[in-house]
Amino acid sequence: MTRILNKLAAVGSAAIIAGSASAADLQMGHFLPEAFPPNKAEMAFAADLKEATGGDINVEIAFGGQLGGEKEMLDFVANNVVSMASFPANHYVAQFPAYEAFGMSLTYDTPEQVAAIYKKALTTLPLTKATYEKANVTPFLFRGLDPYMLLCTSPVREVADLEGLRIRTFGSAVPAVFEGLGAVPVNLLTSETYEGLQRGTVDCVYFSRVAHLIFKTYEVAKYNIDFNFGAVGSYISYVNNDVLNDMTDDQRAAFWAAAEKGEVVALQVINALEGKAREVFEAKLETMTIEDGHLIKEQFSPRWMLTHYVESMTKLGSEQEAVAKEVEAFLVQELGL
User: Fold this and answer.
1) Helix axis angle, 111-124 relative to 126-134, nearest 10°?
2) Which CATH superfamily is domain 2-93+126-144+234-270 in?
3) Is 3.40.190.170 the CATH classification of the domain at 148-232+274-335?
4) What is the 3-state secondary structure (H, E, C) of the chain?
5) Radius of gyration (C-alpha) of the chain in whole angstroms
6) Do 165 and 183 contact (CB within 8 A), yes or no?
7) In tens digits, what is the pLDDT along the chain, a chain of 337 residues?
8) In what order do the strands lie in the sheet with 58-62?
9) Does the predicted model carry a pTM greater than 0.70?
């Protein structure tokens, strides 16, 4: 805690200096490098908000973790050290238990579908909304990722070939799926996946097709495993509630309109990059199908995924259990399960 408070003070001082020219200059931290193509969504949001407010609100984005790491950023936004930030919520499962339900495999079909459902859940469900209010942040810029799949250094022609393979995963539900298939889940940061394949730390990487393209894992993998594990909700952005509440009604309206524009841009970028990724993989990798892949879908149905999700959140406490059950009921209805 002392380390975090010291970091808060240091970054806070830097933010004050950087934003001293105008009270309308808002700092936005981002965990990914500026060159990451999906960042066009945040850039579109910032540009549109500035234009819509006549320059009264200028969002300055600091990419690549310049204003703090993934495990610190929630504290920074909550305490208004930075006004807003984009970061994955995997480190904050206890605070945001609803988030985990939208990273489950074999549940959602497209980026458009999961983004719409994700947004509706996090902005309308009472218990879910309360977790963000408690953290003093409001989520925005909801986006989905194209379906996840495997790139591997070993061939996978049937489910049995997954036995013993070390597979990069994340979250709680995804590792459970691969453990159930006999594989060994390995927790790696996105930035570590290329070297992990190159050094043999992992045999496969579980990524969206677009993420494989961006992080160039196709350069160190040999096999494109043509099995669709489903789309998932991507990282989102968070704004400090005091910052949002201090805006005028017109400025808040402009904020949400700009966020919607950013969401449209995010989907456009993902869809364009997915087409490019298919071309690259076809040219550079050997593609193979898991011939008995239907067994995976039969074993890990959306209902199984939801049950596992609720059980995982229940272990964290009664508050997390209540949120998970709220989300479960919502998804049963939304997905027609």
Assistant:
1) 80
2) Bacterial extracellular solute-binding protein, family 7 (3.40.190.170)
3) yes
4) CHHHHHHHHHHHHHHHHHCCCCCCEEEEEECCCCCCHHHHHHHHHHHHHHHHCCCCCEEEEECCCCCCCCCCHHHHHHCCCCCEEEECHHHHCCCCHHHHHHCCCCCECCHHHHHHHHHHHHHHCHHHHHHHHHCCEEEECCCEECCEEEEECCCCCCHHHHCCCEEEECCCHHHHHHHHCCCEEEECCHHHHHHHHHHCCCCEEEEEHHHHHHCCHHHCCCEEECCCCCEEECCEEEEEHHHHHHCCHHHHHHHHHHHHHHHHHHHHHHHHHHHHHHHHHHHHCEEECCCCCHHHHHHCCHHHHHHHHHHHHHCCCHHHHHHHHHHHHHHHHHHCC
5) 20
6) yes
7) 444 444 444 444 444 333 333 346 999 999 988 988 889 999 999 999 999 999 999 999 999 999 988 889 999 999 999 999 999 888 899 999 999 999 999 999 999 999 999 999 999 999 999 999 999 999 999 999 999 999 999 999 999 999 999 999 987 889 999 999 999 999 888 889 999 999 999 999 999 999 999 999 999 999 999 999 999 999 999 999 999 999 999 999 999 999 999 999 999 999 999 999 999 999 999 999 999 999 999 999 999 999 999 999 999 999 999 999 999 999 999 999 9
8) 58-62, 25-30, 84-87, 236-240, 137-140
9) yes
Q: What does the block give as tokens for 176?
A: 């459970």
Please indicate whether the domains covering 2-93+126-144+234-270 and 148-232+274-335 agree at the CATH topology level: yes
Two tokens, residue 246: 């201090």
**Cα separation of 30 and 237, whole Å?**
9
Every domain of the chain and the residues it spans: 2-93+126-144+234-270, 148-232+274-335
Longest dimension (CA), the chain: 62
Helix (H) or strand (E) holding 320: helix 318-335
